[in-house]
Amino acid sequence: MFTEIIPFLVALLIGIAAGYALRKAKAKRTADEAEARAEKMLADAKNKQQQILQETKTREQNALIKAKEKALKIIDEAKHEEQARRRDIQDQQRRLEKRENMFDKKLMEVEEKTTKLEQRTKEVEGIKEKLSGLKDEQLAKLQEVAGMSTEQASEHLLKQVEADIEESLMSRLRKAERMSEEEIEKKSRQVLSLALSRFASPVSTETTTTKVDLPNEEMKGRVIGKEGRNIKAIEMLTGTEVIVDDTPGQITVSGFSPIRRQVAKRALDELIKDGRIHPARIEECVMNAKKTLAKDLRKSGEEALYQLGIPVGSIDPKLISILGRMKYRTSYGQNALQHSIEVGMIAGMMADDLGADSFNCRKGGLFHDIGKSVDHDMQGAHPEIGYNIMKKFGFPEELCYQSIAHHEDRPRTIEGAIVKAADAISGARPGARKQSLEQFIQRMEELERTASAFDGVEKAYAIQAGREVRVFINPERIGDLEAYRLAKDVANRIEAELSYPGEVKVMVIRETRVIEYAR
Q1: Could you give the percent of the chain with pLDDT greater than 90?
Q2: Whose CB among 224, 241, 301, 493 lies 3.0–4.6 Å from 324's, allowing a Cys bridge?
Q3: How far apart are CA 226 and CA 304, in angstroms?
């Protein structure tokens, strides 16, 4: 058994030794090949490095050559520019030298003229002194001959001239006024008649109360609420007074602000329709009423612009809403928005007949009272407030001025005068405006009292519902010329101290009666 294994082991050892020798030879051969490849790669890398260095050196040399050429070119250009600038400087120096020479010559001429003028001035002053002396001598001789001083002579002459021409002056004045008044009256009647015949507007007046209809009497108790909490909530949220009386099927909302009354009415209408009336629901309905009223104001402003042919897109939306507020604003009982539309329409028609700017008059007439929409919230009179509002929204000066022009005696533009006349026409129409009996009587008394306060006035009567004041004067104390001044003074004081719709005509009457008896 052992003898059989020995040959196998010997063969195994021999195989192992042979395999080891083959593997070693193969490894050596592989190492030699790898070394050969590494040397080859190293040689290739060195060759490439030399090529790259050579190429880089060549590019640097080329760039250096180009840079030198460019630098030489820049130097040449700089030299040429320097030469051109030197030539320009030399030309400028030559021109300046010429101008200095010319200036010196002119300066010498001016000095010579100045010297001559000074000499002439001295001569003129000497002549004036001589003339003054001669004048004083002549004046002294005249005073000696006349026996009066200069002041006495001039006063005597003025009195004599005034006495001579007073009668002719008054007659010419009356004739000129009569002719101008007749011509103006004729033209104005023609223009106004055409404008009024083309435009007719309904007259509606408003008071300080608004009625709210109820479906039944039971609803009054629900509006009042437990211990009056509902009615208190409505009054607190709207700033109005809700009056529940014995009037069947109605309750009354009272307040001086039409917008507040309208908010309260809309809120009550919604509450009555819904049927649920309690403080929380009241607050919700008041908020809804304010939102719907704001939309209604915007719509009313747009409708006014549409009626007058003014593009809605040309007006700021905020200004349209401010214009719509005038729907719930009254002046002497006349609706302010309707009044503004009337003024715009009438002013546009009058402008067409007179050859003025029709569009400017329509637009100015519509916005002339825009200050009234916010005059309760701002300080100042509504003409100035309206002027500032239109300025704020970018209106031109000639258009903004019409807010002030309709309250001026003599507007400085034809459009302003037209708007003023249209405003007076709209406010003076019968039924357009109203006042209570007490206010009317008080206004009449104030007119008569104001006119009677002047010296020389015997009696004063207010007639034509306060549109005219007739003033009778003492003819012995006041002459014809003084009567003209008195009429203006009375009109100015009425305008400054009193408040009235439209305009007031002041008529001063001077009557002289001469009585003689035949015996």
Answers
A1: 1
A2: 301
A3: 44
Overall average pLDDT of the 372-396 stretch: 79
253: CB partners within 8 A, 6+ apart: 209, 210, 211, 212, 240, 241, 242, 243, 261, 264, 265, 268
Q: What is the DSSP letter of 370?
A: G
Closest Cα partner for 512 from 466, 482, 470, 476?
476
Q: Return the amino acid letter for 502.
A: G
Q: What are the tokens at 139?
A: 């004046």
Is the overall model pTM greater than 0.85, yes or no?
A: no
Q: How many CA atoms lie within 13 A of 164 on its CB side?
A: 6
452 neighbors 438 (Cβ within 8 angstroms):
no
**137: pLDDT confidence band, cut at 50, 70 and 90?**
confident
d(CA 348, CA 418): 9
Which residue, among 351, 322, 329, has the nearest Cα to 420 in the 3D structure?
351
Instruction: Tell me the CA end-to-end span of the chain in Å, nearest whole number.
Output: 209
> Which pair of tokens denotes residue 48?
């490439």
The CATH code belonging to domain 437-509 is 3.30.300.30
Q: What is the Cα–Cα distance from 494 to 449, expressed in whole angstroms? A: 10
Q: Where are the domains of the chain?
A: 148-196, 199-307, 341-434, 437-509
CB 424 within 8 A of CB 407: no
Ranges 108-117, 188-197, 282-291, 374-383: which has the least confidence = 188-197
The angle, 0 to 180 degrees and rounded to 10, between the axes of the packed helices 279-307 and 229-238 is 40
Question: Pairing mode, if any, of strands 457-463 and 334-335?
Answer: unpaired
The superfamily CATH assigns to domain 199-307 is K Homology domain, type 1 (3.30.1370.10)
The CA R_g of the chain, rounded to the nearest whole Å, is 53
Q: pLDDT: is 9 or 217 the higher one?
A: 217
